[in-house]
C-alpha cells in the first residue's frame, strides 16, 4: 500500500525493485561518452528497416525483448509504454504481438519517469507482480514530425537539442536484489510562458524545479540525501537554469546534479548544441548508465526526474506557450 | 489492495466509487438522442474560441471544472487525462493551471476506460484518495489531423464514423454513495490486420471481444450478470461484428449490449454513417448517460469497455495494419 507524504509524493511501502533493464540506441549515441554502456547500438538510423518509423518500432521491440531476456523470460502482468510519435504508435506497435495487457502513456519526454511512477504504484497496490516500462524516441522521426524534413538541412539555434535515438525498458517486480523504487513524485504542469520551441530546456527547467522541490518538501530530504540527482533532458541550457533556480533558494546543486541530455553526447564535438532530448534520452541513460552504476554500488541513492515539454507544432503555431512537466522517482539500494 | 483474478482482471477491494461526473458536448451531439443528458452543449464547434484546438481545450477545461464543482470543490490528488490531438495537448492544456499532479495517457478512443482502470487502481493502492479522469475529442480537430481539412468536403464511406465533439470527466474517490468500480480489465492489443482507416469498427471489434471475453473468463461471470454492457465506439459496423464474434461462441449478446457510438447519434438522420467515435464518445456517454442512469437505479451492474484503434496517418501511409485495444471497467451499485 502506497503512503502519501505531503502534497505530491507517495512512499512505496512494498519492496518494488528493478528486476531487469535494457537500452538500445542509434549510431550517434553509440559514439558519445556512454557508448560502452548500451546493450545494443545500431550502426545507422534504420535498424535494418525501410522507414525511420519502422526503425523506431524495431528499436523499441528489441529493447523490450532484451529486458525480458535479462529477466530470464519473466512475463510481465502489464506493459506501460510511450513515445513521441503521433498517436504513440512506436511503443504500441513494438509490443502489439506480445499478448500482454498494454497501457499507453504520454508525458512527452517525461514518459520514462511517468511509467516508472505508475508501474511502482501498480505493483505496490497489490494487483500486479511485474510491470514492464518501455519508452523511446528517434531523431529522424521526431525531426520530421515536430520540425522540418531532414532533407531541408534547417539551421538549428544554439539552445536547440538533439532528439536521442534510443530506448529504455525496465522490468519492475518483487524478485532479485536490484535497486528499490522507494518514492514517486508525480509532477504538476508548470507554465513558465516560454514561447520558443527551440528552447525546451528553458520550458522544462521550472517544472523540474517544482517537482524536485516538492519531493524534498514532502520527504523532508534535501539534495545531500542523494548520491546523484538526474534530470531527463534539460540539456546544457536547462541544466544551468535549474541550478540558478535552486541557487535562489540558497541551494548549490553541485556535482551530484547531472542531466541525461548533457551526459549522452559530447557537447563539444558531437554538434548537438544544447544536448540530448526526447523520451529515449532519459530512458536509455537510466537503463544504460544509471541503473547499472547503482547495481555496482557506485551510487546507492538516486533521484531520477524526467522532464517533458507539453507542446505540439499546432499549439506553437497558434501562439500558445510551452508548459513543462516533470515526474520524479527515487531509486535506493538496500545497504 | 487490488486482487488479481485470472490473466487480466483485477478486483478493486477498497470501496472506490464515482463521486461526481460531468459531460460537455458540441452542437451535433446536443441534437442527438442523448441531447437532454449532457451537462453543457455548445451551440457551435468553437465554444467561443478562435481555433478548434482552443475550443477543444476549453471544452475539456469546462468539463473538468464542472466535475469538481459537482463534488463541491473536492481537489483530486491527481488528474489522469488524454485526448486524440497530437502530443495530447488538449487534456494537458485544459488542466495546466490547476496545480494538481497530472499523468497523461494515450489509448486512442479507449483512453476513457484506461484512465478509469488506472484511477481505480491508484486509489485502491492506498496512495491517493481522489483521482479525476478527463478525456475528450473534437470532430474538427480530429478531421484535419487524421484525414483532410474540412474545407475539402471529402466524401466519407459508409463504414466511416464521426468523431464526437465531447468530453467526460469522472472524479473517483471513497466518499458518497455513487456507483463502485469493482473490477478493471486492462486490454491486450489485438491486430486483426484491418488496413482500412475508414473502418475503425472492424479494427476495434476483435479487441473488444478479446477484453470482454477475458473479463468473463477471469471473473467467472457471463453476459447475464450485467444489466448492461457498453462498448466505446465500435459504431454500427463494429457493433455487428462484435455480436457475430460472440455468436460463434454460442453467446447472444441481446439488447443488453449497446455501443456508445450508436447511442449518441440518430444514425438514420444525423449523417454520421456508422456512428460516433473518438475518446469523447465513450467519455461523454458514460458521464452524460450511463452513470446518471446507474444513480437512478435503472442499471445496477454495468460493464464499460472502451475501444481504441492504434494507428496514425503515418502508419497507414507506410502500409501498417490497424491494431485495436479495449480496456474494461465494471461499475456496480450497492443494492
Please sum up the structure shown:
With 335 residues, chain A is of the alpha/beta class. Chain A has helices at 52-70, 89-94, 111-124, 139-146, 200-219, 235-247, 260-263, 279-295, 313-317; strands spanning 3-5, 9-11, 17-25, 40-41, 78-83, 102-104, 131-137, 162-163, 166-173, 180-185, 228-231, 257-259, 276-277, 301-309, 324-332.
Report the uncertain regions of chain A. Answer: none
Give the integer mean of the pLDDT values of chain A: 97
List the helices and strands of chain A in order. Answer: EEEEHEHEHEHEEEHEHEHEHEHE
Question: Based on CA inertia axes, which overall geometry of chain A fits?
Answer: globular
What's the quaternary structure here? homodimer
Strand content of chain A: 15-25%
The most extensive interface, with participating residues per chain, is: A-B, 61 and 61 residues
Amino acid at each position: 500500500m502506497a503512503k502519501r507524504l505531503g502534497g505530491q509524493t507517495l512512499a512505496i511501502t512494498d519492496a518494488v525493485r528493478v528486476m531487469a533493464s535494457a537500452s538500445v540506441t542509434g549510431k550517434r549515441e553509440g559514439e558519445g561518452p556512454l557508448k560502452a554502456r548500451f546493450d545494443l547500438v545500431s550502426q545507422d538510423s534504420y535498424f535494418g528497416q525501410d522507414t525511420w518509423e519502422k526503425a523506431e518500432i524495431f528499436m523499441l521491440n528489441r529493447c523490450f525483448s532484451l529486458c525480458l531476456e535479462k529477466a530470464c523470460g519473466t512475463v510481465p502482468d502489464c506493459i506501460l509504454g510511450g513515445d513521441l510519435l503521433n498517436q504513440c504508435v512506436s511503443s504500441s506497435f513494438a509490443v502489439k504481438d506480445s499478448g500482454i495487457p498494454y497501457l499507453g502513456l504520454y508525458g512527452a519526454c517525461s514518459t520514462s519517469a511517468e511509467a516508472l511512477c505508475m508501474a511502482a504504484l501498480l505493483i505496490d497496490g497489490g494487483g500486479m507482480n511485474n510491470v514492464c516500462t518501455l519508452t523511446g524516441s528517434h531523431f529522424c522521426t521526431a525531426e520530421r514530425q515536430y520540425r522540418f524534413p531532414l532533407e531541408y538541412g534547417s539551421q538549428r539555434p544554439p539552445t536547440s537539442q538533439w532528439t536521442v535515438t534510443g530506448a529504455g525498458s525496465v522490468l519492475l517486480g518483487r524478485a532479485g536484489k536490484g535497486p528499490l523504487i522507494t518514492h514517486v513524485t508525480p509532477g504538476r504542469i508548470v507554465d513558465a510562458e516560454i514561447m520558443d520551441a527551440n528552447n525546451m530546456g528553458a520550458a522544462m527547467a521550472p517544472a523540474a524545479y517544482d517537482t524536485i522541490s516538492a519531493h524534498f518538501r514532502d520527504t523532508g530530504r534535501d539534495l545531500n540525501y542523494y548520491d546523484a540527482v538526474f534530470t531527463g533532458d534539460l540539456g546544457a541550457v536547462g541544466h544551468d537554469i535549474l541550478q540558478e533556480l535552486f541557487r535562489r533558494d540558497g541551494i548549490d546543486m553541485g556535482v551530484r546534479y547531472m542531466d541525461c541530455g548533457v551526459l549522452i553526447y559530447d557537447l563539444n564535438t558531437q554538434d548537438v548544441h544544447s544536448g540530448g532530448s526526447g523520451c529515449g534520452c532519459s530512458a536509455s541513460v537510466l537503463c544504460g548508465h544509471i541503473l547499472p552504476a547503482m547495481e555496482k554500488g557506485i551510487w546507492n541513492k538516486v533521484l531520477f526526474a524526467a522532464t517533458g515539454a507539453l507542446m505540439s507544432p499546432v499549439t506553437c503555431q497558434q501562439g500558445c506557450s510551452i508548459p513543462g512537466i516533470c515526474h520524479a522517482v527515487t531509486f535506493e539500494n538496500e545497504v
